[in-house]
Structures are given as C-alpha cells and as structure tokens.
Design a protein that fits this description.
Blueprint lengths: L4 E4 L2 E3 L5 E2 L10 E5 L15 E2 L8 E5 L4 E7 L4 E4 L2 E4 L5 E2 L5 E3 L5 E4 L5 E5 L3 E10 L2 E2 L4 E5 L3 E7 L2 E8 L2 E8 L10 E8 L4 E6 L2 E6 L2 E6 L3 E3 L5 E3 L1 E7 L2 E8 L1 H4 L6 E5 L1 E4 L9 E5 L4 E9 L4 E13 L10 E6 L19 E9 L1 H4 L10 E11 L6 E8 L8 E7 L8 E2 L5 E2 L4 E8 L6 E4 L7 E3 L10 E8 L13 E4 L3 E3 L12 E6 L4 E4 L3 E3 L2 E9 L5 E6 L2 E4 L2 E5 L6 E12 L2 E2 L3 E8 L6 E4 L3 E2 L4 E5 L8 E8 L2 E4 L3 E4 L5 E11 L4 E11 L8 E2 L21 E6 L5 E5 L14 E9 L4 E9 L2
Parallel strand pairs: 1-28, 2-29, 3-4, 4-34, 30-35, 39-46, 48-55, 57-63, 64-68
Antiparallel strand pairs: 5-6, 6-7, 7-37, 8-9, 10-11, 11-12, 12-13, 13-14, 14-15, 14-20, 16-17, 17-18, 18-19, 19-28, 19-29, 20-27, 21-22, 22-23, 23-29, 24-25, 24-28, 26-27, 30-36, 31-35, 32-34, 32-36, 32-37, 33-35, 38-40, 40-43, 41-42, 41-45, 44-46, 47-49, 49-52, 50-51, 50-53, 53-54, 53-55, 56-58, ...
C-alpha cells in the first residue's frame, strides 16, 4: 500500500538543494539537515538598539554600534551589501506586499517578485527580466494559481487538486517546492512539470549535468539547481531536466521517475530545486573537502575595532554530504582556526551520521579559543578566521564530489563579532547601604570596569587617590573593581533632620585608550541625622558671677552631656565662678550630644572671668563750706584696659560721667557721693563717700582803710554773699544812724564820713543772727 507522499521542487537562480533533518509541520518540505550537537546563545542585545555605521560597509561585512558603545560586526562569504548608484546598500531578501497583491524583494542585486498569477520574476541589471510560470502538470494545463497561505518568507500556491507549490524568497532567487500531497494525482509513468521561461532577447537555457543554466552569451547569469525528490522517510530520487523550445518560447520540464514514485513512498513527496541569480553567488564557489588528516581551508578577514573587548566570535558554516554518492554526514569534519588557536572538531554522530544531507553550525561562539591570543588594542586589529573541511573516507585528495561546502547553503561561512567599549558591570557603582551618621565623613564604595582595553584608571572627586588596575589579556573581559575610600566634602553635617540620604557621585573611569565609562548612575548612602549641643551662655563674666550655660540638643530627642571644672552631667551648667587672679581666669567646659547611636564631636566652651575694676575717688575740700566749690576726682583702675565708663551720683542723682567734677552746695549737710565704674568687659565697681557741707561764719570788722589801694577799702563781711536776706545799720559815736542797706552788698566805703570810730549792726535773717561792733574809719 502506498502511504502519503510529498514531492518538493526548488525553483531558484544560482541556488542549491537544502537539507532538512527535522519536521517543522506535520511533514517536512526540506531534505535532511542536521545541526552539530553544540549550542551557544548569541549576544542578547535587541537589534533595535544597534545602528549601522554605513561608512564601514563592504560587500561582505557590516558594522553596528549601540549608544553605549557595544559593537557588532558581521563578516560573511555571502554578500551582505550591493552597490546602488555608487553606494553600498544592505541586501534584504524578505518580501513586502505591493498594492496589487504581489510580493517583492527589491533591496538586493537581483530583485525577486511573486506575481498574483503565481509566476516568479527575477529582475537583473539593465531591466532584464526572467519570468517563470508553471504551464503544465503531467500534460494537463496548470490551473490558475491561487495563493492559499502566507508567512514572512514563504508563500504557498494551490496548483491543482493534490498539488501545491511552496515558494520561499531567498537572496537573489527562490526556493520552490512542488508538493505531491497524495498518490491519487500520480500518472502511470514519470511525473512531469513544465515551466515556461520568459527570457530577454539573446538569452538562452543550457543544460549542464544536473542543472539548467540561464546564459547571456557566454556569461552564466542564473541557475536552476539540481532536482532532489524525497518522501517523508527521506528516501531520495534525483530528478531530470529537459529543455524545450516551441515557437520562440523557452521551457524546461522537471521529470521524476515514476517507478520510484509508485514504490513504497511516504507522502507527501517534495520536488526540490533552487532558482537563483549568479550575482548572489560567493565568488569562491563550492569548497572541497580533503581526505583527512589533510583539511581544505578558506578564511574570512575579521576586523576588531579599536578600543573594544571581544565578547563573542560567533561562527556559522556547514558542509553537504551529497545524497547521490555514498557520502554521509558522519564522514565529514570541520573546524576553525586563527593564527594562534584552533577550535574543536565538529562532526555528526549517532543515527543521523549515516545519512546524507547538510550538517551545519549556526552562530556558535568560538571566541575562546580563537581570539584568546590576541590582546585588546587601541588600534584596529585584523584576524583571519579559517574554515577547515575534511572527510575520513571515500577517495583521496580534495574534491567536491562527496562532502563539500555548498555555495548556496543556508548556513554560509560567516563570522559575527560582538565587542564592547568600557562599561561598568555587576553593581556598576556600589555604595554599601549600611547607614552612617551624618557627622561620619569617611566611607567606602566600589567602582567596576570591564571591556574596552585594560588597565583602567579609577578616580573619584571625593578621593585623592588614582588607581590603575587590570590586565590586558585575550578572552578576558577585563573585569576589575576598585574599592574607594571616600570623604564627603560637605561633612560633618549636624542638626538637619531631613538629611537622610547622601547622593554619591559616580567614579571617573578610563580605559587604556582614554575611553571613559559613561552613564554610571549616582548612588546614595543612607544617613542618620546627627545632633550636636547648642550652647547659650555669656562666655565673658565678671568675677563672682554665676555661670548659666544652657545646653540643648539641636534635634528633638537628643541628650547633651557635659564635663569640666570638676563637674559633669546633662543639661544646663550652673556654677559660681570667682576670679582667681588680677587679670583673666579661664574655665573650660566640654559637651557632646547623642541621638540614635550617633555621637557628636566634643565641643569646648570657654568661660573667661574678668577681675572687677577698683573704684577710688577723692573729694576736695571735705568738709566744704556752703557755696564753696568742691572737686570730685576718680582714681579708679581696671585690670584690663581703661575704664570704659564712670558715673557720678549725688544723693542718687546722676551728676556727671567725667573723670572729675566740681560744684558748690548751698545747704550745709552730709551728702553721699557715689561713683559707678565699668571696664571694657562690662565688669563694674561702685564706691560711695560722704561730702560734709558746713555753714559760713561771719566775723566782726574793727577797721577799714578806704585809701584806694584796693585793700580793706570797704566794709566787707566774709561769707555775707551766702546770705541773701541781710540788713546793715551804721552809727556814729553819738549814736546817730549814718548808713543803712537792705540787703547790704559789701560795698560801703565811708566816703562821706570823717575818720573816726563808728558802730555797725548786721542782721542775718536766714540764720536770725545779729552781729555788731565798733570799727575805725582810717584814711
């Protein structure tokens, strides 16, 4: 009984048959392909973060960078770019849908297009078109194609009942699979598909061995690859091409052996050729394998940009064991090398080793060992990565007959390099999150550096140290960290309850090429606000004064402790402080505050005791007769500096602030005179003494001599001017009144009288006294 069959065909220009080892659907549309039993994950950096450096494009390489300095470079034996109007543009083979429903991949040297009627178009330079369309299947006119499914790269067309056509866009061509879904559509003889080929004028089809080539004169411009037909058990049959011309039209027929098809097949069956344009070929063609221990080799020149550390050297390649020879994947072997290191050998083992097909390595990281002997550099470094291919049986020498690197492989010899400029890693910039008090100025933090080119230079704005560390070795990420001892320049900080977090600026790190690590974040250090004593007191006191030093915490809840001068305690200091000498006596007190296990610095509180000034006065004369001037003189002294102020007081009435003072008092009595002095420091002294004011006594006069010599010329009573209310009477010897005055002003000279003896009576009303006496008037 015939099982379900699958028939696949590729329609490609410059293409090769591809091998599939696993089923991606309920059946497989590709022949066996087998990955090597090794895996490595390519750098996990989103593609969107890379931007290409277009100035570094070549046909076979592209270079990308991220904003933070990550580098990605791709080197391939297969073209990555093509020239358009003198500028290199990247090749993109993924199609986009056009307005009319067709699908086009125009960003490549040979543009490809799937028309809505199912025909395939290749657009060569100078607008030369090649159009391929299915005309007949087993002599029956092909029905109008209907697109039945669409994925990113693959489109599927229903050709007729039980026969589909799967089209995958590849670079510069198509991979076309004809799928025979059921044996009911098989003819009795060979299965034949006729394709109509529309060619530019003078172009033609030429069959060569198992391929059909499109020729422009003597130049090969396209190829229809070898026809491989297989079922779901990977039983294989080779198809055959026949070239036809009819009325100027070009055709070829794909024929699959009917006897093989009607054998014990597992449907669906796949007919698998490839169609591709020659411009997408690698100029090196197929790479032969050599009989081991000899290996054939080819190489790619990989450029490592200046100032980066390689973080990945991802290698892809493959070899093909031809299913129409005795070759199997198990006899092939490949490895990779640089000028100073070689990778492990890559071989297929196990059940699949006995099968033909494609053995592939897909982006495997061979950075170690291939690049380990190349130190990082501040200049661009070129490394040749070599691909070595061998086989362990089937003939001698080197050939492409059995095992080869196929130029149209889906896994071309390719190297993708990832590199990084200097950056931080791990904690990036680590500040321990253990809280410190705000008056603790020193703490540690760690800066991290890697990539770029070691050694690294570490500095920090809060440290005077410059540290150079790290070793430049290949395959070494350069990971290095430095423990900084930092001193907060704004420390200590007291009394700020809101200060609970200290922003710590990042370190400044350069690699050996002078590249600075950027975007290091600011970190923070948890802070416990510290309190300190607040002292309120008069630091300069006069001798014998009580000290009142009030100590409080600047933050709520803090406790202030003090000690000094023989005492200690908490809170306010009260103490009588005498002056111990004649100048200044200094007393020292100390205080500190605690809160939340934070202790402030110890503060010194100096108290200066100034010896008091000494007041001293003299009163002259004392006693003093009423209405007679007296003088007050200060002889006070101060220990330090001059007397700053001295105030005289008479009977509690301020009279002067001068050093001396003179005045008279009209009323006899004892008067209290005080002086209050102060020095420059405000220290004072007060001294009081008694001024005795006595009354004036009038004495009798016994003679006057008015002779004009200004001596005793008038009758003048001493102190009479002290008594305003007086009255004088003068009599002659006979008792006659000759003169009187009220009041008498000490001005009578007796000019109108003769010399002789006279008698006076003087009455003092203020004291109710009377004075009388005889006196002589003598000229």
């Amino acid at each position: 009984m015939i099982k379900n069959l699958l028939l696949v065909s590729y329609l490609c220009l410059n293409c090769h048959s591809l091998l599939v080892a696993q089923q991606s659907h309920s059946y497989t549309e590709e022949f066996r392909k087998t990955p090597f039993a090794v895996t490595s994950k390519e750098e996990n950096i989103p593609y969107s973060k890379f931007s290409e450096d277009e100035t570094k494009r070549t046909i076979y390489s592209r270079t990308y960078k991220t904003a933070k300095g990550d580098v990605k470079s791709e080197f391939s034996t297969k073209p990555l770019c093509y020239e358009v109007n003198g500028k290199l543009e990247p090749i993109v083979s993924i199609p986009v849908e056009e307005i009319d429903g067709s699908w086009c991949a125009n960003q490549q040297p040979i543009q490809t297009k799937l028309h809505t009627n199912g025909s395939l178009q290749l657009l060569f330079p100078e607008n030369n078109k090649v159009i391929i369309s299915t005309e007949k299947i087993n002599s029956q006119q092909a029905e109008k194609s209907k697109l039945i499914s669409v994925s990113k790269e693959k489109k599927t067309i229903q050709l007729s009942d039980g026969i589909r056509k799967s089209i995958t866009f590849i670079e510069g061509g198509f991979k076309v699979n004809y799928i025979i879904e059921t044996p009911s559509v098989l003819p009795s003889g060979n299965f034949i598909i006729r394709e109509k080929i529309e060619l530019p004028t003078a172009w033609k089809l030429v069959k060569e061995q198992d391929e059909v080539r499109i020729m422009n004169g003597s130049k090969k411009v396209g190829i229809f690859g070898q026809i491989l037909c297989f079922d779901q058990n990977f039983e294989v049959s080779k198809g055959n091409y026949t070239i036809l011309e009819d009325g100027g039209n070009h055709y070829f027929e794909l024929a699959i052996d009917g006897e093989w098809l009607h054998g014990n097949r597992n449907f669906p069956i796949i007919i698998d050729p490839t169609i591709a344009g020659t411009l997408s070929q690698w100029t090196g063609g197929n790479i032969p394998s050599c009989f081991m221990p000899t290996y054939n080799k080819d190489s790619l020149l990989v450029n490592v940009p200046a100032g980066v550390t390689l973080t990945g050297l991802y290698v892809s390649s493959s070899f093909y064991a031809d299913p129409f020879t005795p070759a199997t994947m198990g006899i092939g072997s490949m490895y990779f090398s640089t000028s100073c290191a070689s990778s492990q050998y890559f071989t297929i083992t196990g059940a699949l080793a006995t099968s033909p097909g494609t053995a592939y390595l897909d982006s495997f990281n061979l950075m170690n060992p291939l690049s380990c002997c190349f130190p990082k550099s501040c200049n661009d470094t070129s490394i040749y990565v070599r691909f070595h291919l061998g086989r362990n049986s089937l003939g001698t020498g080197c050939n492409t007959t059995y095992v080869r690197y196929d130029q149209f492989t889906q896994y071309p010899f390719k190297v993708i390099m990832y590199g990084k400029t200097p950056e931080t890693y791990g904690n990036e910039w680590y500040v321990p999150q253990t809280s410190i008090c705000s008056n603790i100025c020193e703490f540690t933090a760690t800066g991290y550096a890697r990539y770029g080119v070691p050694p690294y230079t570490f500095t920090h704005p809060w440290s005077a140290d410059t540290v150079v560390a790290g070793i430049n070795q290949g395959c070494n990420m350069g990971n290095k960290n430095n423990l900084f001892t930092l001193i907060n320049p704004n420390c200590p900080i007291y009394c700020d309850s809101n200060f609970t977090e200290l922003p710590v600026p990042p370190p400044v790190i350069y690699d050996a090429c002078g590249a600075q690590i950027i975007n290091i974040p600011i970190e923070t250090k948890p802070i416990i606000p510290a309190t300190r004593p607040v002292a309120v007191y008069d630091s300069t006191l006069c001798g014998g004064t009580d000290l009142n030093l009030i100590l409080t915490s600047c933050l709520n809840g803090g406790v202030v402790n003090y000690f000094g001068n023989g005492i200690n305690g908490q809170g306010t200091i009260s103490q009588l402080l005498p002056a111990l000498n004649d100048s200044i006596t200094i007393y020292n007190y100390y205080s500190y505050a605690t809160l939340n296990n934070c202790t402030s610095d110890t503060l010194l509180h100096n108290v200066y005791i100034i010896s008091n000034p000494v007041a001293d006065i003299s009163i002259s004369p004392n006693p003093c007769i009423v209405e007679t001037p007296f003088t007050l003189l200060s002889n006070s002294t101060a220990v330090l500096g001059p007397i700053a102020s001295q105030d005289w007081w008479l009977e509690n009435n301020f009279i002067s602030s001068d050093t001396s003072y003179s005045s008279v008092l009209n009323i006899p009595g004892n008067y209290t005179i005080c002086i209050r002095i102060a020095d420059l420091f405000g220290c004072s002294d007060t001294l009081c003494e008694v001024l005795n004011i006595i009354p004036a006594e009038i004495e009798n006069i016994n003679a006057i001599t008015p002779n004009g010599d200004n001596v005793n010329d008038v009758l003048s009573f001493e102190y009479l001017d002290s008594y305003d209310e007086n009255e004088l009477f003068i009599f002659n010897r006979w008792g006659n009144l000759v003169y009187s005055a009220n009041p008498y002003l000490n001005d009578w000279s007796g000019d109108e009288l003769k010399d002789g003896v006279y008698y006076y009576i003087l009455k003092i009303k203020d004291t109710d006294k009377t004075y009388s006496s005889f006196f002589h008037l003598i000229r």
